[in-house]
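Re: the 614-residue chain
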Amino acid sequence: MRLFAGTVAEFSSRLASGQLITSLEHSFAQQMLHRPSPSEVTSWANSLPVLNEDLRSADLDHAGIVVEFMLPLSSKRLDAVILGRDQEGRSRATVLELKQWRRAEITSIEDRLVNLGGYLTLHPQQQVAQYVLYLRDFHPLVDRRKLLIDGGAYLHNADLTDAKLMQLSFLRDLQEFPLFTAEDRSDLQEFLVKRAGEGGGEDVLSDYLDVTLKPSKKLLDHVSLEIEGHPMFHLLDEQMVAFEVVKRAVRQSLATSQKTVVVVTGGPGTGKSVIAARIVGEMAKQGLNVSHATGSKSFTETLRKTVGRRAAPLFRYFNSFKTAEADEIDVLVCDEAHRIRASSNDRFTRRTERSSLPQVDELVQVAKVPVFLLDQNQVVRPQEIGTVESIRDSARRNRTEIVQIDLNGQFRCMGSETYVQWVERLLGLIEGDPIPWEREDAFELRVANSPQALEQWLFLKHGQRYTARLAAGFCWPWSDPDSDGHLMEDVQIGSWRRPWNAKPGKKVRDAPAASYWATDPRGIDQVGCIYTAQGFEYDFGGVILGDDLVWRDGEWKSNRLAHADPMVRRAENFDQLVVNVYKVLLTRSLRGCAIFSTDPETQNMISTLILDWT
């Protein structure tokens, strides 16, 4: 996605005619399914004319420019990319991060964080560095050595005093990404001329945009390297802020014994588990006592299998700390913290191991720096009580400082913020009625006219060596295997019958254990339920909406009697839980999703929104 692409001359002409900002607003609304915020429109109106003056003064009319270019497989956007040939005739793309800041306070040079009116954000040089590194990692022309990518930050409202405050170019890893201010305009122009002043802007722009993106990186494919301290993912913006905040909290803890709770919130695909893996890897590399914990057997067992026997003990469960001493662990990373329960005790807990504390208090007390990563809209069972407020309450009870970071980028669904918006509008999770899906190259969305067609589409993707899985709402019984160890075909829609994934702890023939349904290739032959799909990602997903959520008279109606989990069926917040289930299932996919509803009226409504049929 980009909001404008053309030559600098075209860009300047659109600005002069007063058409550019309006055009950007219209393009944004078309592509993102919502209007840009007033602050974003103001930033375009304030920053782009200044950039235009510099480009014209540098005589770069024939250079190419892209405004608001979305990073591959992410919802993060680059303010401007200037394209052309450098003094040695090489094709170059120069990323510019434009800031209206007049003044900001560096909280710590080592952290590369800035306090902007009480809000922690990444230093502009670090921000543009992460953008460039990310883009290099994904743009195929870089691999083919046909394109060089670099960048800089431009604080066009800041003066020299502020520049000295803000400048971090003396740090070796940031020297490649200079910072310019209003008093450095001639330096900025020289910087751009060296990179795009030899013409060829239109050709370089065309080559830059006319590429097929690389396959997305999947966490589980690289988690071992992350844990070993070899970063495979470039964290962006709030992701990097969260990582640096944790590092700073750890340093403070080691130096002063200060305890800090860090809370990281974000929806599906915002990179919470990537941050978790990076923290575990970084802390382990420093020789600290670090653990990772979840409330999901499937996710934890898969992570243990992925990292191998040596690192497996780092991965534990929320209920593993009932008898632990206070501050026994340096850093505890609680991934999927929305799955925290009221108590770690259950009917199997020995009397000597029972805890009188709420589970969240156990997790806060056991570590010097407890880190909670969660999405409150992924609570799918009534026993799950992990919320930001419950963690804040625990921090207050334990007299512990708390820092919260909110993630807003999208790194799943091919980085399609549009698709996530579409899902949230569909399910009524944000304001506005369901809206038609405008075909988007980044993400493939289809409606299937039968479960057979849905399955056939997934097998086609599987045959093309993509990971593909079929999941459904929990609207059918879940039987034990038969006496021969075969799965029962519980999911029945007309003449179509398929088994659920295996139950936890049950051995079956020709099927993966429950924990590995999402990652074992044999999982394509079963229907996954929410309890095995949550926390995982795959290239293509099929989702069956059952009769527990149907569309009637212009709104969603939940049906307890159609749901097969008695505990969820009895929950007071059943309506919210069932909507959360389908949001999770619909956002597992990286590349595409197909939907089928067992209810004819609901199927008809969805069919009016999606033009592509399977």
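The longest helix spans residues 38-57.
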